[in-house]
Amino acid sequence: MAEPRIKGPASYFPSIEKTYGRPIGDWLQIVRERLPAKHMEIVSMLKSEHGLGHGHANAIVAHVMAEAKD
């Protein structure tokens, strides 16, 4: 049986790890430490302070924000 396909922001995680050389857990923790900041404030921080691209930063923040709602 095939593994279920990962959807949503988490689908970016393997690419993020490969591109930036850090485990996804590190990025998730960086975002969690910034809460309750606004989504785009955290995206901007990831881009300016850590050099992430917009799509990757947005995916990480969206994932953490969705977790926080659950």
Automatic annotation (TrEMBL):
Q: What InterPro entries does the entry give?
A: DUF4287
Pfam annotation, one family? DUF4287
Q: What is this protein called?
A: DUF4287 domain-containing protein
| Organism of derivation | Bosea massiliensis
